[in-house]
């Protein structure tokens, strides 16, 4: 579609993977945009859960964090964090865990902890949060990340969340209850695990993309599926809905915050 950016196309491609009425544990950032776009288009019955305990939330703008009041204000209910993990995630009630990460390796293991050595890191990242539990227990995991050799790496600097470990059935042998990363949505194409080796391979390209572009953006020798699919361009509805959501979000986040001042002499 003329005028569509690759970032918009990636978000729309990710949103299409979500089914109506699915229970989805949502990460902040790109995953949140994709999940809420799905809710506003083809999956109005999707149940979005955020780590702060908001269940069935329907935000009008994208949240800044899991503690954004927009999530609680628009949720069907709010429960404690232990309840979210114990009674929903660990109980097997989450269909999709939708995550982002700073690094991902060829078997879908994720790093959101440090870049460089753990004791003397180049960059210390926000950390694990609920990602390890989501990656372990969700029936399937989707990951969204922009591809580059710095983020799609041969070996993680630190493994925060387990994907398929070393592949070849290692996750199943370790007793992980969830299904692992079934799709990695990037700005160069869609990756999915090989059914036997569990190594991520290229399975779909954008209509204006190429295998060479995808391989150049990944830090390991990227294999391709026997038959590559083409990711359909955004429809007018998808693109208009995403742009309206982003515009509302920018406007909301630009508003000044007025904090009440204590009167003089008050304790």
From TrEMBL:
SUPFAM superfamilies reported in the protein's UniProt record = NagB/RpiA/CoA transferase-like
Any Pfam family matching the protein: CoA_trans
Task: Keywords in alphabetical order, please.
Answer: Transferase
- Which GO molecular function, any one, fits this protein according to its record? CoA-transferase activity
Q: Where is the signal peptide?
A: none
Write down the superkingdom of origin.
Bacteria
Which protein are we looking at? CoA-transferase subunit beta
């Amino acid at each position: 579609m003329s005028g569509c950016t690759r970032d918009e196309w990636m978000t729309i491609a990710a949103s299409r993977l979500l089914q109506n009425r699915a229970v989805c544990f949502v990460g902040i950032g790109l995953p949140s945009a994709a999940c809420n776009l799905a809710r506003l288009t083809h999956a109005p019955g999707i149940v979005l859960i955020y780590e702060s305990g908001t269940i069935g939330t329907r935000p009008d703008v994208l949240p800044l964090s899991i503690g954004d009041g927009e999530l609680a204000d628009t949720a069907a209910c709010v429960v404690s964090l232990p309840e979210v993990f114990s009674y929903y995630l660990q109980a097997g009630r989450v269909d999709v865990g939708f995550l982002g990460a700073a690094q991902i390796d060829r078997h879908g293991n994720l790093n959101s902890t440090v870049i460089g050595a753990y004791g003397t890191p180049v960059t210390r990242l926000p950390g694990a949060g609920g990602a390890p539990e989501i990656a372990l227990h969700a029936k399937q995991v989707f990951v969204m990340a922009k591809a580059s050799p710095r983020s799609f790496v041969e070996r993680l600097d630190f493994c925060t969340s387990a994907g398929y470990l070393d592949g070849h059935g290692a996750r199943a042998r370790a007793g992980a209850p969830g299904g692992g990363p079934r799709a990695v949505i990037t700005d160069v194409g869609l990756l999915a695990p090989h059914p036997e080796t569990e190594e991520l391979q290229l399975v779909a390209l954008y209509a204006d993309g190429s295998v060479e572009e995808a391989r150049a953006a990944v830090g390991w020798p990227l294999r391709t599926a026997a038959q590559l699919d083409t990711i359909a361009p955004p429809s007018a509805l998808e693109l208009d809905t995403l742009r309206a959501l982003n515009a509302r979000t920018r406007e909301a986040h630009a508003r000044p915050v007025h904090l009440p001042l204590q009167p003089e002499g008050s304790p």
